[in-house]
Amino acid sequence: MSHFLTVAEVADHLRIRPRKVYALVAAGEIPHRRAGARLIFESQEIDAWLRGQGKPLDRAVTRPPALIAGSHDPLLEWAVRASGASLAMMTRGSRDGLAQMVAGHACAAALHFPAPAGEDGNAAAVSRAGAERHWALIGWARRTQGLVVAPGNPLAIGALTDLARSPALRIGRRQPGAGSRELFDQLTSEAGLAETLPKDSFVDGLTSEDEVGLAVREGRIDCGLAIESAARRHGLAFVPLIEEQLDLLVDRASYFDAPLQALFEFSASATFRDRAGALPGYSVAELGVVRWNSGAN
Question: Which residue range(s) make up the domain with 38?
Fold first, then answer.
């Protein structure tokens, strides 16, 4: 008589690790069923599959490419290179990263969406876009966001409201769809500055955290919202405003593939922790924590 097995029971039966069972499922190579988000296996089907007598699976599973989309993060960019993970990066902002995941064009995306106090912006955004998808939101880092200003802070900018003091102030902004741009828009709106700041104050289209710092250093702008490490990297002053959460949204099947496994295994190393500890404004205390799971919401 047939009965149903769990992932752990199938792994024990096949004498392989549970991770390999997930990989076989993702590749469409082992017969399985789903009860909601839970994987189950019929014992007779598994035995027939082992003997080479199982029915062919209905379809092959299309896998997204080994690409991380979404927000620019210096620590993530370095970790991808240093880990040797075979991952490409396309950092065009959190909104674009979420869109790439919806389209199946990326296996992961770095996200940092702002939200009103007491809410989780990242979880809210992905739950709206992917409640029926096989995604998980995994903690990467907490980062300090604030205003990057010239060395010594010659304009004495100490708070967001100081941006309204001078109509001649040049304020750099990230491109639309970037998490930092959405955060800037939210903070200025909450401070009552959205209609106060002159439109010609803004220098738009800065495409990364480092580009904001570089624009301040080169004198193209007087300030811009970015993470603390971008300011310190360019020898600039920094006015902290808020701590934010940066998460990695991952395709659950791709998580068990070699590229993402290499990245996450490297992130548990002493080399990675030392690097993260040397970056100002970073905390990786909750790296790897599953903060949202499409099968559990």
Answer: 4-50
Domain presence at residue 26? yes
d(CA 63, CA 252): 11
Kindly report the CA angle at 206 between 205 and 209, in degrees rounded to 5?
150
> pTM higher than 0.90 for the full model?
no
Predicted local confidence at residue 33, as pLDDT: 81
pLDDT digits (tens, 9 = 90+) for 142-157: 999 999 999 999 999 9
Read off the CATH number of the domain in which 75 is found: 3.40.190.290
Note the pLDDT tens digit of each residue in 110-119: 999 998 776 8
**In the predicted model, what is the mean pLDDT of the chain?**
89
Question: Across-strand partners of 244?
Answer: 143
Q: Is the pLDDT of residue 63 over 80?
A: no
| 199 and 153 belong to one structural domain | yes
Which pLDDT score, from 0 to 100, does residue 54 have? 57
Residue 53 CB partners (closer than 8 Å, separation 6+) = none
41 with 103, same domain? Answer: no
Contact in structure between 137 and 148 (CB atoms under 8 Å)? no
Residue entry with tokens 């990675």: 272
For residue 270, the SS3 value is helix
Looking at the structure, tell me whether residues 42 and 90 fall in a common domain.
Answer: no
- Whether residue 57 lies inside any domain: the answer is no
User: How many other CB atoms are there within 10 angstroms of residue 222's CB atom?
Assistant: 23
Rounded to whole angstroms, how far apart are CA atoms 109 and 245? 14
Count the Cβ atoms, other than its own, within 10 Å of residue 170: 17
Q: Which helix (H) or strand (E) holds 172?
A: strand 171-174
The tokens for 194 are: 């959205």
Cβ-based burial of 186 (10 A; exposed 0-12, middle 13-18, buried ≥19): middle
Residue from 79, 62, 78 nearest 27 by CA: 62
204 near 225, Cβ under 8 Å? no
Residues 35 and 72 in one domain: no
